[in-house]
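Protein modeling request. Please complete all fields; requests missing the sequence field cannot be processed.
Requester role: graduate student
Desired output: 3D structure, token encoding
Chains: 1
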Amino acid sequence: MVSILYLIALAAAIFVGFNIGGSSTGVAWGPPVGARITNKTAAAAMMTFFVFLGGWTVGRNVIDTLSGGLVPQALFSTEASIVILGFIGLGMLLANIYGVPVSTSMTAVGAIAGLGLATGELDYAVIGSIMIWWVIAPIVGFWVGAIIGRHFYPYLDQKFALEQSSGPLLTLNRSGVVPTPELGPGTTPREAVSSVLVLVIACYMSFSAGASNVANAVAPLVGGGLINISNAVILGSVAIGIGAFTIARRTMESVGNDLTDLPLLAATIVMVVAASITTVASALGIPMSLALSTVMCIVGLGWGRATRPTGISDLVKGNTKNKISVDAVAVETGDEVPPVGEENPENIQNAKQLFDPSSVVRFVAFWIIGPSIATGLSYVTFVLLPIAGTP
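Delivered output (391 residues):
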């Protein structure tokens, strides 16, 4: 007979996965849905498939880390698994209330680390390597974005900026025996190629989300032997998919991490950089937050674009010709792109506001506060309640 606690543990994992699907789908599919390249139902379906693919392949490494790398697997009793999943869900709830990009991976690590501290079984070498990656990832995201924004973004904008026609992207020619797809009225080959590229990158972002986030919903269950890793990936993917088809319909309209207001090209660049960092970290078994790299890449891209009017020597000395702002990403590219250091500073200053600088402070604060609270609450809980297993 299946125990009540077992069912509660499964429900907790599904709840966490459901919320992950709601937030992650908006990050991955908000830009293509907003640009009318695909609809929400198709986006949710592709999100679910590629999340499963990412979880089934790369995500197994992250599950191994969270289910037995930080603390011995024997500590994950059914009761302990429920508590940890509860803290992960609580962390997501608080982040959503305050409107910040939720870092499920960091919250999960914090909750499991609290269990390890309370029992004296935390592997400090593993937690240290994870935290080093948490420092490296946003730095890499910022500087990759900065280099692209300063040296390449205007040229990319000239060649690949998506100019959408008013009609459908594709139509079916039914004049023959077999209907054949063809470009819609007013659709240019450039628009078609750019649209396909955006879809491919959204699928890549979904794969990255699966690689990093499936583990957050199911790792405690795997650690406690409540479910095997293959079934856990399926369970986590289904839960994320349910979130993608339901609550994510709203987050795809208004993405919670400011990608919505970015030009589509800028959003695409940010998605590629963030997904690549997260996928590499996941392949190494490091739980990584997509939001962490995404937000800092947005900041770096805007900073790089804003510093184009300033030469490298003046930039090093701090003698900038204009106010440096992330909003510079929205500046329209003219027919000719002036070299770095020769662009008119007024072009940058006329950019519309996209990103509140104070948001960065709030995001970084929650990246620190969120895992810290999860660690503290988990530690106190497992000290007061002897519900963890014994190694």
